[in-house]
Amino acid sequence: MIERDGVALVPTFALGRTQELLNIIARLQETGRLPHVPVRTSGLGRAIYEVYRRFPDYMHPEANLRPLRGFGRVGDMWNPRKVKELLKRPSIIVATSGMMVENTPSALIAQEMVRDKRHGIFFVGYLDPDTLGYKLLNGGPGTLLKFQLDRRPVEVALEDIQWFYFSAHAPRQALKAIVERLRPRRNVIFVHGDPEAVDWMCRNAANGCMSFAPAAGESISLGG
Question: Is the residue at 62 inside a domain?
Answer without folding.
Answer: yes
